[in-house]
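This part of the workshop introduces the protein records we will be handling. A record pairs a protein's sequence with a compact description of its fold. As an example, a complete record with its sequence and its structure tokens follows.

_____
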Amino acid sequence: MSVPNTLMDTQFEFEGQKNVYKGKVREVYNIDDELLVMIATDRLSAFDVVMPRGIPYKGQILNQIATQMMKATEDIVPNWLIDTPDPNVAIGHLCEPFKVEMVIRGYMSGHAAREYKAGKRKLCGVPLPEGLKENDKFSQPIITPATKAEKGDHDEDISREDILKRGIVSEQDYEILEKYTRALFERGTQLAAQRGLSW
């Protein structure tokens, strides 16, 4: 059963279109190996599973939050965005991504809390002290990178040392990524505090 005002799939054929990638939520069209047209659908993904029914306007909200944050941080780090001509659509430069996700954590929550509860005292090569409780604030934010597992589409924890050893990113590039990550986290913390969202 379809839900009104829900975008679950697109079937566009743009001039110069080379291919289309259909992810769990986003659909990405490659135009002449120069531009990407990214469409945020209303599909809902949880724990790497796409649910059979979407949420009306979810894609618009997702895309508009991403657009707002890229515009709010473009003075810190260059990004791919050129324009957002529709609430669900972002158009930008085709770029070659780094094969690593730079995750930064200010609090013992989510994945970090689950790993800690399971007895792990090191996350992505970062040592964690004894006695932490869920949602405790770290004395300093920690960077806990992830990469895609070789089999499947799930994220895999990885340390800075392993990233460099495996040649996923050069040391020079990693230092730039780490600098950007910390600067973006600081800006995000400031923006949240301005809206009363700090602890």
